[in-house]
């Protein structure tokens, strides 16, 4: 892998959405269709040799798209190769790109490191930095942080049935300019946001990937859930966090249910 195409930290992340053109599909020969299905089964198999680190596909109800594919990995070419293979497959002429989003996984600048966490304990909770309680708490936090950061940078896609994706940016207008707020204020708002999100632990798993300078929005929000209702609930709840209520702009929302490649191809009657 050429080092120039490997992020300094984290993985490339590509969200792809396609519609099926039934007219074009009907025009394909039976053989092209069969070969196309076989080709896509391989392309969309996360365990295929040479597959990127993570890959999931899902069916999308509604007319915005028929299906989506999420790909994450170290090697940009391996990630991009999935997109190319979908379009270059014998079914490619019947698959119309509906939307795509390119981003990179990251650890947010608002996640306190162990040192900053220690300062919070000392200054806000009055814990004596010389005490054994302090050391125990900081050590436990550092261990938790290591696992959390690993999952944010090199995520294991959860094996949960539903997924929701939407791009978002922070406002930069008038008195709603996120980027003109001092760091402490942004940090405070994000910490409130984090606490409201944590109430969904075990029901929703979120991944924030960064796209400033890479795509049209600043972040991609990917939420996996054990039930579609939890997606509705979390997005609604978090709208009330000031960081979202006052400062967030959202693009289109894509919702889907996760399937294996062969289940997806069957479901779409390809
Ligand atoms: O990462 C952490 O757990 C620490 C706290 C935290 C940060 C720093 C956190 C927690 N988020 C952070 C950063 Mn989030 N998040 C969103 C959305 O729909 C909306 O209103 C906004 C879309 C959701 C649903 C969500 C969920 N978060 C961010 C950032 C980056 C900001 C930056 O770096 O400038 C964005 C754009 C963003 C947006 N967030 C959580 C959640 C949930 C569920 C949590 C709790 C995490 C947990 O329990 O592990």
Please tag this protein with its features.
270 residues, alpha+beta, Alpha-Beta Plaits, two-stranded antiparallel sheet, 11 strands, 26% strand, elongated, binds ligand 76R
Layout of secondary structure:
Layout: E1 12-20, H1 22-26, H2 30-43, E2 54-59, E3 67-73, H3 76-88, E4 95-105, H4 114-125, H5 132-153, E5 162-170, E6 172-173, E7 176-177, H6 183-198, E8 204-210, E9 219-225, H7 228-239, H8 242-245, E10 248-250, E11 254-259, H9 261-267
Antiparallel strand pairs: 1-3, 1-4, 2-3, 2-11, 4-8, 5-9, 5-10, 5-11, 6-7, 8-9
Bound molecules: ligand 76R.
Describe what is shown at a glance:
The protein has 270 residues and is α+β, with helices and mostly antiparallel strands. It has a domain at 3-105: 2-Layer Sandwich (Alpha-Beta Plaits).
Report on the structure:
The longest helix is centred in the middle third of the chain and has 22 residues, at 132-153. The chain contains 9 helices and 11 strands. A hairpin with an 8-residue loop joins β8 (204-210) and β9 (219-225). The protein has a domain at 3-105: Apc35880, domain 1 (Alpha-Beta Plaits, 2-Layer Sandwich), CATH 3.30.70. The chain is elongated, with a radius of gyration of 21 Å. The protein is α+β, with helices and mostly antiparallel strands and 270 residues long. The protein has helices at 22-26, 30-43, 76-88, 114-125, 132-153, 183-198, 228-239, 242-245, 261-267, and strands at 12-20, 54-59, 67-73, 95-105, 162-170, 172-173, 176-177, 204-210, 219-225, 248-250, 254-259. Bound molecules: ligand 76R. Ligand 76R binds next to α6, β8, β9 and α7. Residues 108-111, 168, 190, 193-194, 197-198, 200-201, 204, 206, 208, 219, 221, 223, 234-235, 238-239, 244, 248 line the site of ligand 76R.
């Amino acid at each position: 892998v050429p080092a120039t195409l490997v992020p300094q930290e984290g993985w490339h992340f590509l969200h792809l959405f396609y519609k099926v053109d039934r007219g074009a599909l009907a025009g394909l020969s039976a053989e092209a269709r069969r070969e196309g299905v076989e080709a896509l089964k391989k392309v969309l198999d996360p365990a295929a040799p040479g597959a990127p680190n993570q890959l999931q596909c899902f069916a999308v109800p509604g007319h915005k798209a028929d299906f989506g594919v999420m790909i994450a990995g170290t090697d940009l070419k391996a990630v991009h190769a999935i997109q190319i293979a979908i379009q270059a497959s014998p079914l490619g002429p019947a698959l119309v790109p509906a939307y795509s989003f390119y981003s990179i996984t990251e650890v947010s600048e608002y996640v306190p490191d162990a040192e900053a966490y220690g300062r919070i304990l000392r200054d806000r909770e009055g814990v004596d930095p010389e005490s054994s309680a302090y050391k125990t708490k900081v050590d436990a936090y550092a261990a938790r942080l290591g696992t959390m950061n690993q999952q944010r940078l090199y995520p294991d896609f959860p094996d949960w049935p539903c997924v929701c994706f939407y791009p978002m940016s922070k406002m930069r207008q008038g008195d709603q300019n996120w980027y003109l707020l001092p760091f402490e204020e942004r940090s405070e708002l994000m910490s409130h946001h984090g606490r409201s999100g944590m109430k969904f632990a075990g029901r929703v798993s979120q991944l924030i990937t960064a796209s400033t300078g890479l795509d049209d929005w600043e972040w991609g929000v990917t939420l996996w859930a054990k039930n579609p209702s939890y997606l509705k609930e979390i997005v609604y709840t978090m709208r009330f966090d000031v960081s979202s209520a006052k400062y967030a702009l959202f693009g289109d929302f894509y919702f889907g249910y996760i399937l294996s490649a062969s289940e997806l191809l069957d479901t779409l009657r390809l």
